[in-house]
Each structure stands twice: as structure tokens, then as C-alpha cells.
Design goal:
The complex is a heterodimer of chains A (504) and B (297).
Chain A lengths: L1 H12 L3 H11 L3 H4 L8 H34 L2 H7 L4 H29 L10 H28 L3 H22 L13 H8 L10 H21 L23 H29 L1 H10 L3 H8 L4 H33 L4 H4 L5 H33 L6 H10 L2 H16 L4 H19 L6 H5 L16 H24 L6
Helix pairs in contact in A: 1-4, 4-7, 4-8, 6-7, 6-10, 7-8, 7-9, 7-10, 8-11, 11-14, 11-16, 12-14, 14-16, 14-18, 14-19, 16-17, 16-18, 16-21, 18-19, 18-21
Chain B lengths: L2 E12 L2 E12 L3 E5 L6 H8 L7 E6 L2 E2 L4 H6 L1 E4 L11 H12 L4 H10 L13 H13 L5 E5 L7 H16 L3 E5 L3 H7 L2 E6 L2 E6 L1 H7 L2 E7 L12 E7 L2 E6 L4 H7 L4 E7 L3 H8 L8
Parallel strand pairs in B: 3-8, 3-9, 6-7, 7-8
Antiparallel strand pairs in B: 1-2, 1-4, 4-5, 9-10, 11-13, 11-14, 12-13
Classes of the chains: A mainly alpha (504), B alpha/beta (297).
Chain lengths: 504, 297
Amino acid sequence: MFVLATVAAFPVAFPTFAERVKAVATLQSFAILLGQPYHAETLAGFTQWRVTTAIALMGAIWGLLTGTGLLRGEEDAGRWEILLAGPVTKARATGETLVGLGAALIVMYVATALGTIGSMRLPGVHYSALAALAFAATLVSGAAIFVAVGALVSQISATRGQAATLAAGIMGVAFLLRMAADSKKGWEGLLWLTPFGWIEKVRPLRDIDVLAFLPMVALVVACVVATMALASMRDLGGSVLREGEGSPRVGGWVIGPTTLALRLVRGTAIAWLVGIAIFSFFSGAVTRSASALLADSPGFAQVLGRLGVRAASEAYLGITFFMAVLVLAVLAAGMMSAVRDEEASGRLDNLIVRPTPRVVWLFGRVAIACLVVLLGGVIAGAATWAGSESQHVGVPLDKLLQAGVNATPPAIVVIGAAVFVLGVGPRLVSAVAYGIPAYSFVVELVGSLVKGQDWIRDTSLLHHIELAPAAKPDWGQDLVLVLIAAALAVAGAIAFQLRDVSYA
Amino acid sequence: MATIIETRGLSKTYGSQLALRDLDLDVEEGEILGYLGPNGAGKTTTIRLLLGLIAPTAGGATVFGLDVTRDAPEVHRRLAYVPGEASLWPGLSGAETLALLGRVHGYVDEAYRDELIERFDFDPSKKVRSYSKGNRQKLSLIAALMTRAELLMLDEPTAGLDPLMEQTFRECMRESKRARQTVFLSSHILSEVEALCDRVAILRAGELLQIGTLAELRHLSALTVHVTFGGAVPNVADVPGVSGVSVEGQRLSCELTGPIQPLLERLTRYDVRELLSAKPSLEELFLSHYGGDGGTA
């Protein structure tokens, strides 16, 4: 759909060649996020640039969550014990799970290929069927690579959480490397060191580089072979990495539902916050070179005019905070999914059969989620400042801290919406919580091309946030978002208090 | 004697599926009530209703005279619950879990907790993830018992325990009874119910079939009679209260409800060599109610 929408919208948004050339100049500002545009004045070049990295990133997140969920989460839940009690060896169970995941990827590929082939019927499309098929393969490759990475880390990790964190860390480093490669002239060679670089290099619709598929295939095969080898060698529940020991004392700081929630989110939250800090520091550290790329583009002055900023560095940093908004929203979605999981698993019962009102428990979880998001925003601002100061960019700390805080309201809305769904349809919490940022991201990318249909972009949360520090934060608008979130949360909390506890 | 649990017309349906219908039940202070029923009979639904985890579709329940839904936190302050399958936080150690649950409850008899840890042979230093099912169940039991709560709501509490630990559990229950604690014990282990419970409630397909002491239930049930004759075997099918007559050689077996005198009068006219009669065990009582279908929810 994303491909079809982009292909359909391009000739409408940029009907003349002159407009396309002008638009390409502005695309450079997004190079650090979406990769270097390549012949983006053509429909094929623009489409592959606009869609590839975004879809590959979403696919990678799905892949690592699914891979670790099926290959470690099921084992953690004890379901593999039942499976392996039958005439099934661990290697065979692992192999069959991988085959199942492979089948899911094939289904995904076929669906994507139908979209890319279908796009050939749209006006102005000149790429071949082979190119369309290669494009579909490129789009699915992020999911395939991180399913394989997820499968491998599941064999060496002690828990599903540890596996998902490790896989997410690998994905984060891979994405940062890709960003580094696209941040400065002369660093393009780094693209060969990261899966996201290989994906960017394929360019299936315009001057395809088939060689870039090779490292992807090699990595997937290597991960699968290593996964099978480790699966057949290790005990059920065994791992290479160790999990930290629990406290043998009857005491400690976990004294109630809220401190318990802190303890439960601690590991994941720290991992996310460290990731945000690294990402933000790096984004800040390349401000000078990325801004120089921006300044070189002929359309830059026009962009600056639209954004109302005075410095190239601030324009660039505004775009990097767009990424922070997304990351914080996904972080919020993850924390709210964990809240629902507490109820579905029956662990919540341990607290609410004691004198803890349900809403008190929920309030603690929501407060912690909001605090972590806010902390994430502040860390994003501070780390971006630290990175940019290391290059003497000169954007003041308070401006970047404000930009970080300004990045949090969409995540707060995700939390509010998740609480509402927890109250009225608890089984949909994860789908809604993750769906909101995913939908908003796609709408932002597609909606910007659709003229005269502003209401579509209005449905995106990301559209209601100013790209600070490129633009001044609109605190009034932010407050409206927070109030909407609060209203949703209150309604959800009331419904949650009144409804039956809902198990998985 | 105070009524601790009282339900009137307590009902729960999920869509068109009946889980519990018109439950009228009173549990008195210091009593151990055995709550029996096959899988899906509505036992766990009853407990969840009494805990306020789910709301009734009709009727209502009070615990300590308080509404279980409206006054849930106050009710929960005075009770402790052990689920059939303990779902705990895998990343916490046993010690951390006990500390947390104790603090949340508000009161812990620390000396008794340490004693329970020893008696159940439980190692609290390990993470919950590494515990076997039995050890997780021990952890749940210790967390409940250490509070010395006035009411213990136990849903299959010995699932996964070995026979030695089951004995320890029974000792704890006897101590609870001596301490005037009230126990609502849902169990499949009939010997456990027979050994511990003052009264037994039998549930089928969401409906309460019988409730009473074991003696009362036995009184209501048929007496099993086996008679061996030296000569001819009499026909007793027409004797009032007799049913299920079967004859195998010189041996006659039948069920008897009501007074035994008419049957004895008939039997003594013949050459009786051996006469055995037995009250049904709880297992026989239980099985006599579940010859056919089981539960609904």
C-alpha cells in the first residue's frame, strides 16, 4: 500500500520535471534518516528512496520481535517442554519454527510483490517486472535478516527479554552505521558494514546492484546455520549468556506495585534510554557535516523559508528529532504492551487480590511509562547537545532540551490510547499501541505527497508536533495532545476498574 | 458464629455460556469448606467472583459482610489467595516475591514465614524462573499463609506438591483451623478434602448440587450392601429403599436408601453367611454425582 500510494502520489505532487528537480534538492535533508536519494527526480528513484528504509526498519522490528518470541519466548513460557516431550528433537523443533518463519516471509514477499507489480499499472511507471520483484525482495529483506538475527540471539540469551534487547541493540548499531554512512561525503563505504546499508545499496528500481543481496543472503544463512547448531547443542532453557541473580534477601526496594513496575521495566527502559542517548549523541555529532550537505542543496533556502529557521544545523536537528518522536512512541507502545501482559498472564492477580486497587496499580504503571518517555525526551535533547557541542555547532542546550520534551507528547498519546483500549478491549492493546506510531509514520511519508488531502495528515500524531529546534515548539499544541491522552487514560481507567479481569 | 462468606443467587455467564448459576452459600468463621467439582464446574469462577476479579451477572456476594466488588481492597486486606497455577514474576527471586507480596498485603508474621520456608523446604534465593511448578506453588502458599489472614481462599493449592509437602500443607491447614482462620478450599484431591474439611460443597455444571458435612452427605446417599448366602438368594428388589440389585453366584449386592430394617427382615429369613455394609467414601459420593456430564465453564 505504501508503495502504491507513493507511486500514485508522485506525479500528482510533482507534475513537472522542474518541480521534481526542485523537490530532490529538499530530500537531502532526510538523507540521514532515509538514506541518500538516488535519481529521486524520477518516479522509480523517488519511490525506492521514500519507501525502502522505512519499510526495512519496520520489517526489522517485526522480525526481531517475532524471531525472539517464537524461538525464546515459547521456550520461556514452557510450551517447548510439551513439544519436546513428543517425538521431536530440539533441532527439529527449531528447524520447523524457522521453516514456519520462512513461510511467513514468503507470504509477506508475495503480498509485497503483488503491490510492486501492481504499481506498474499506474501512470508514469517505467520499471520492469524483474525490478518490481527485486524491489519487493529488498523491502522484505529487513524482516528476513532480523528474523534470522533474532533466532540466533535466542540461542545464546537466557530469556526472551534479553534476546529481544540484544537483537534490538544489534539493529540499533546497524541503523546508526547506516546513518553515519549517509551523514558525510566520503563515508559511503560504511554502507557495506551494515544490513541497512546493503538494503540501501540495492536500489532495485534504478541501477540495481545485485551484489548487495549477497551479504544479506550470507548473513541469513550464517545465522540459520549457527541457530541450528546451537539449538542442537544446548539444553532446553540453557544459554551462553547468564541472567543476573536475584536477591536472596527478604527485603530490598521492591515494596509495592509501583516499585515492582520500576523493577520490571528497569532493564528494558535502560536499554532504550541508552539507545536513545547513543542515537542522539551521534545525530548531534554529525550535525556539522549533515548540515553542510543540506546547505549544498539548491532548494535549501526554500526549505528554510518554510520551516522558519535561521541555521542549517537547526534544520537538520529538527529532522533528527522526528526520529526521536517515533522512537519514544514505540518505547511507550512497548511499555503499555507489557502492562497488558501483566494482566493477561495472571501476574496482576497477585497484587489485586491483596489490598491494591486496580487503578492504583494502573496509575503506577502509567506514571512510570510517562516518566520514562519524558526522561527519554530529555536524554535525547541532552545527548544531541553533547554530540553537537563536541563539534562546536553552537546550538544551545536549553533549545535542544525543549526539542526533546517537545518530542514526547505523541508517546504520551500512545500511553493514553493504550489505557483506553486496556479498559474497553484489552486484547487489542499491543495492536493499537504499536499501530499508532506505525500508522502515523506511513501517513507522514505518504500524506506529504497528497495535495488537498490535509485531513489525512491530520490523523497522524506526528503531524501535530513542530520539528524543534528547526521550528519553535508549539507548547499549546503539545498540551492539547497531553490533555487528549489524559482524557483517554481516565476513561480507560474507569472502564478497567469496572470490567472483569481478562486473561490470555 | 459469624458468617464470613455469603452468596445469594450469585451467577456468572460469558455470553450465552453459563459459568455459575444461583449460588447460595454460607461459610462460617473458623470453618474449612471443601469446594468440589470437575473441571469447568465453576469453582474458579466462584473464587474469582468472591475476589472481585470478575463481576456477577446476577446476585451478589459478601465477604466479612462487605461487598466483594465495591469493597474489594478492604476485603482483600483480610484474606489471602492461592491460585491453582501460580503466575509470578520470573525475574524476581523467591525472597523478593515474598517481600513484595507481604508488603502489599500489609502484614506478615515474619517468624511464621521463616518457619514455613523451612517446613516447605523452600529455597528463596533462586529466581522464580528457575523454580519447578511445585516450588512456585510452595512460594504461593507461603506468601498466603505468612499473612495469617482471617480467610484463606485456596484454588487447587497442592497442585504440583509432592506427598511430603502435601502432608505439610495439611498440617498448616489444621493449624489454621486451630487459629480460627476460615478456609475456602477448592480441590480435586478428595482424600485431602475428606481429611481437612468440616463441610463439602459439590458443584456441577455451574450449579451447587449438595452442601453439608460428610456425615450429612453420606446420610443422604445410598448405603452399599453386600450379602453372601449359604443357600438360596432372596429377591430384594421389592424391599422399600433398595435399588441397583445384582446377584453373582451366592453373593447379592444392592444400594439402600432410608431405614435398613425392612431389608434386614427379608435377609434374615435366609441363610446369611456374611453381610457387609459401607457408607460411601467421598470419592464414591463425588463419582455418583458425575456419572455423566461434567462442567460448563
